[in-house]
Amino acid sequence: MHGHHRNHPAAAADDDGNDGMIDRVDPFIGTEVTSLPKQTGLAATWWWAKPQVGNTHPGATYPLGMVSACAYSGAYPTGYGRYDLNTEGVPRTIHDEPVASGFTHFQQSGTGAIRKYYNYFRVTPMLEPLDVLGRTWGIEDEEATPGYYAATLDSGVRSEITVGPKSAVHRYTFPRHENARIVIDFSLGGLSIPYGSTIPLRAHLEQVAPGIAQGEIVVEGTPLSVYIECDEHHWRQMLWYDRRLMPGGTRLDFDHIRPTTLRPFGLMWAGPSEPGHTIEIRIGFSLRGVEQARENLRRDCGSGANRFGYRRERTQKAWRKQLRSIAVDTPSADRETIFGTALYHSLIKPCLAPQESPFWPTDGPFVFDLSTMWDIYRTQLPLITTLMPEKAVELGNALLTICEEEGNFPIGYRMARGSDRFSRQGSALAQTFLADLCQLGLPGIDWDWALVHMHNDLRRTYGEDFLLRGHAHPISHTLDLAFGYWCTAKVALRMGDRALVKEFEPLAAQWVNAFDAASGLLRDSTFYEGSKYNYSFRLLHDMEGRIDLAGGDDAFVGLLDDFFGYGADPVTQPGVDPSPAELAAGYSLGRFEGLNNEPDMEAPWSYHYAGRPDRTAEVVHAIVQQQFGTGRGGLPGNDDSGGLSSWYVWASLGMFPVAGQNRFLVNAPSFAESEIRVGGEETFFVRTRGFREPEHDGPAQYVQSATLNGAPLDRTWLRGDELHRGGELVLELGDEPSAWGTDRRPPSTPVR
């Protein structure tokens, strides 16, 4: 279940009570195996290399907030749902039906094998003895809207959860029972799959007063503190250890816990309940001790009892504000739902937790669940920068502090200490994000400070090989590093350091060393979750040189046409447990992954640089209309912290950010009109003439001509400032390709 649909076009809401996009959101999209209408045409030729499941969860979240909360089954990878560990094809189920053993906090959103699975402080409402803690109950009557999750256990307990930026509020409604319970398990973490558990190293918890407790667990190097309030003061409040009550005990301390010595422990309230008896549990969280956890709870929820409605309303208001930032015009309730949910999924992560770093003493911005930059730097971070520039600056400063304190920019950064395990995914991705912030001229970052760290970071890991040999393997890192030097040169130029610019220019030119001139593709190497084909069509800073290397426009377009399956036969997708031979055969096709994964997500726009925006229109149309849908199976692959969802948002609007280059490529949109509230202040309108409502397997439309703020636009891109200051883009559409965009190519920066 989710919010009710309206059957009229969505419109941007002001403070007049109009909810805008929020009631179109369905948080259940992506929680189960991909289930889309049969692909046709180009889309039928794309081969899906990675898991066919969105890996999202429907739990309560706050925009870029620290806390999420959801029903816990122990399944991979979020703790919600029915699936086992999976890295290719269709996942196996470990539960036949939806089940839960309680409700946990801190979940990934859409990611795959992160290994840091969280799910701390499980809260379980029970009618059974404590001995059965850990069993699962069937769940039904699930309901989810932004900031709210509810489900009924088959024991008859109705469970509702909402969250704030640094808190969670649970509300449980019990049937009649002589000894009902609410149990909080401090020892649980991770998943109930092999090697999926997370064991606290140290812990303490104490009863402070009737209805009040506090404590801390140190888990994977991170001290996570809680301050807990329970409104039911007439129930007994007790600590427990190894599923045995500790009457009279007021404190538990564990100085050193090993996996072999761990026994469950926690806190419980118990007493008689009558039908409709409701109990509220409020939890404040902090990475800096119980006092700050208490302050966070007060700040989020205020004081006193019955704060659930207050917190839910405030969180809903925060989501309503963010989801108002884009409005689209379509008569299709389904397309509103897909778009609204994509926008919602794009704004859950990363977790911004100011003043909460547990690893260094200074106050200021802190971020976790940047999981991972490889997934989000091209689409989601530019979306945050466009809609919430102040949050983008906060994130930029958090990344700079991480680099200063820990010695490098993270590729993936989670709450767990020492958790940057994804350096082989990519290099120099933070430089791309920071270059966009710098070129936009957003205030709030010390660019002298930033330039030092951007420069130093380029020498880490694969950067050493790049400097010594002119390339690095995996060869895709050569492209990352060359572009990282180009991006850092943009910051150096802004700071007037022309000597550094001169030093970086030949390094930026080393992108050419990654390619085989004979094939026009990348050199043979190892590739992360793809093949040389998936990485060969990146949007480089010197696309003119890239196309020349391939033999010119026609040769480059020919390579792209083969990659996107023009004239190819339909393929068969991997099923459950695909064999190595099946996967090797699929990769050997050299085919686009169809937004099932991220390595080639910008490739459709490469056609723009060869004067063929009509091809971009055809490929993007097929993706938008065939690879995303409604229902729990509505995503083509792991959403990866909003990486796929934000791609859909941009593509639907008829734009695509060229990350790091402060540029947006223009394409035929899939909505007749849209409004983007840039930074919450200015509005950028995308309007069309001759628009035809798109169909699943119908033909694409093509841009015939364009105007920007009333003046003819004969180019296929916008500068970042043109979007960010607001305005109006009008696109004349037609059913046949036109000459628009065939002569004037997007800018390249030849660096020799």
What does this protein structure show overall?
There is one protein chain. The N and C termini lie far apart (57 Å). The protein is built from 19 helices and 30 strands. The strands form six sheets. Strands 2-5-6-7-8-17-12-11-10-15 form a ten-stranded antiparallel beta sheet. The chain is an alpha+beta fold. Pfam families: Glyco_hydro_92, Glyco_hydro_92N. This is Glycoside hydrolase. One of its GO terms (cellular component) is cytosol. One of its GO terms (molecular function) is carbohydrate binding. Residues 1-20 are annotated as: Disordered.
Short précis:
The protein is α+β, with helices and mostly antiparallel strands and 752 residues long.
Major beta sheet summary: 10 strands, antiparallel
Strand order of the largest sheet: 2-5-6-7-8-17-12-11-10-15
Number of H/I helices: 19
Mean of pLDDT: 94
Q: How far apart are the termini?
A: 57 Å
Percent of sequence in beta strands: 15-25%
Q: Assign a percent range to the helix content.
A: 25-40%
What is the radius of gyration computed over CA atoms, rounded to a whole number of angstroms? 26 Å
Number of strands: 30
- The helix/strand class is alpha+beta
Question: Based on CA inertia axes, which overall geometry fits?
Answer: globular
Low-pLDDT stretches: 1-18
InterPro entries: 6-hairpin_glycosidase_sf (IPR008928), GH-type_carb-bd (IPR014718), GH92_N (IPR041371), Glyco_hydro_92 (IPR012939), PNGase (IPR050883)
GO biological process, one term: carbohydrate metabolic process
Protein name: Glycoside hydrolase
Organism: Agromyces rhizosphaerae
